[in-house]
Design a protein that fits this description.
Blueprint lengths: L1 E6 L7 H12 L3 E4 L10 E5 L16 E3 L11 H4 L14 E3 L2 E2 L10 H5 L3 E2 L15 E4 L9 H13 L3 E4 L10 H9 L1 E2 L3 E5 L5 H12 L7 E7 L5 H13 L3 E6 L5 H11 L1 H4 L4 H8 L5
Parallel strand pairs: 1-2, 1-3, 3-4, 5-8, 8-9, 9-10, 11-12, 12-13
Antiparallel strand pairs: 6-7
Helix pairs in contact: 4-5
C-alpha cells in the first residue's frame, strides 16, 4: 500500500503523522508526504490540521482521513497507532524529540479546548514513550497540558529521566503556576531547561496562587529563566492586563501576552508593547498607546 501524509498547518513537527507513519511502515507500507501530482496513486491519505481557522488543503482527495483539532475536536488516533513510537525520519533535520507523558487537564478553563478534546488528566507514558538514546536527540519537547497536576510520582519520574539523560527540556504548554511547589521547583532546578520555564496567569482571580507558584520557582530557579503567559481579551479589562504585566515585571519574570482576539486593535497593540522587550523596558504603556493612537478597549 502507498500511504500519503499531509500537515495542513503548524510550525512544529506533527506527532500524529509521525505515529501514523510508524504504524504503516510496521505493516510494510510505503509512507511519504502527500503529493497532489500523484493523488490517484495513494491507497490512503491522512491529513492533520491544528487550527480551525486554517483553510483546508484544496488538493487533498475527498476521501482523505482528516484529523486534529482544526478538523474535529473529537478526532483521535486508534489506540494501536497512539501507542507507536514516533517515526522521526519523516522530518529530516529534526533535532529534538516531541511527545506527551500525560493527556487531559484537571482544569476546565472556558477558553481552552483541552477539556473537551482530551478530558480529565491521565498518565499515558513517560519520556521513553517518545525519546530513546538511539534517536541521538539531546532535546525533548513535552506537549503535556498540565504536567504539574500529574501525580507527584509521575512528575518525579519524568523529571528524573530528563535529568539522568541531561536532555534540554521544553515544557512547551507551560506548567501550572497555581500548583507549583518547592518540590517541583527543586527538580526543575536540576533539569537542563531549553528556552525558559513557562507558566501562565490567565485570570485576575488567580493572582495569589500564581504569585505563590512563581515565588516557589524563584527560590530555586533564576527569575530570568521564567516566562509567564498573560491571556488578554477574554474576561479581563485593560487595567487588569496592565496590572498583571507590571506585577510580573516587579517579580523580574518575563511576561508574554497572548491575545484572545488577535484582530482586536487594543489587544494587538498591547501584545506588541509587552512582547517587544526593548520597547517594554523603555516605554510606558500610556506613552506607547498615545504614540500608536491605540483605541480604547
Amino acid at each position: 500500500m502507498r500511504i500519503g501524509i499531509a500537515q495542513v498547518d503548524g510550525k512544529w513537527p506533527n506527532l500524529a503523522l509521525m505515529k501514523l507513519a510508524a504504524y504503516h511502515k510496521r505493516q510494510g507500507h510505503d509512507v511519504g508526504w502527500f503529493n497532489p501530482l500523484f493523488a490517484r496513486e495513494y491507497d490512503a491519505v491522512y491529513a492533520s490540521k491544528i487550527f480551525d481557522f486554517t483553510p483546508d488543503d484544496p488538493y487533498l482527495p475527498s476521501d482523505a482521513v482528516r484529523g486534529g483539532t482544526g478538523y474535529n475536536l473529537e478526532s483521535s488516533l486508534p489506540p494501536e497507532v497512539e501507542a507507536c513510537f514516533p517515526d522521526y525520519s519523516v522530518y529530516p533535520g529534526l533535532d529534538y524529540a516531541i511527545g506527551f507523558t500525560t493527556r487531559g487537564c484537571v482544569r476546565r478553563c472556558p477558553f481552552c479546548v483541552v477539556p473537551r478534546k482530551e478530558g480529565r488528566l491521565r498518565v499515558t507514558g513517560d519520556l521513553y514513550s517518545f525519546w530513546r538514546p538511539e534517536t541521538g536527540f539531546s532535546k525533548a519537547r513535552l506537549l503535556d497540558n498540565n504536567l504539574t497536576a500529574a501525580p507527584w510520582e509521575h512528575f518525579e519520574r519524568v523529571l528524573g529521566q530528563l535529568i539522568e539523560h541531561r536532555l534540554l527540556a521544553d515544557f512547551s504548554q507551560g506548567l501550572d503556576a497555581r500548583l507549583l511547589t518547592d518540590g517541583h521547583a527543586r527538580l526543575l532546578a536540576k533539569a537542563r531547561i531549553w528556552k525558559q520555564i513557562r507558566v501562565a496567569w490567565d485570570r485576575m482571580e488567580d493572582e495569589a496562587a500564581v504569585r505563590r507558584g512563581i515565588e516557589a520557582l524563584k527560590r530555586h530557579v533564576p527569575a530570568w529563566k521564567i516566562m509567564c503567559y498573560v491571556l488578554i481579551g477574554f474576561d479581563t479589562a485593560p487595567e487588569e492586563d496592565l496590572h498583571r504585566v507590571e506585577v510580573l515585571r516587579g517579580l523580574s519574570v518575563d511576561p508574554f501576552v497572548m491575545s484572545y482576539d488577535k484582530r482586536d486593535p487594543y489587544q494587538a497593540a498591547f501584545a506588541r508593547w509587552v512582547n517587544h522587550k526593548a520597547v517594554f523596558n523603555t516605554v510606558s504603556w500610556a506613552e506607547y498607546a498615545r504614540l500608536k493612537r491605540v483605541p480604547a478597549a
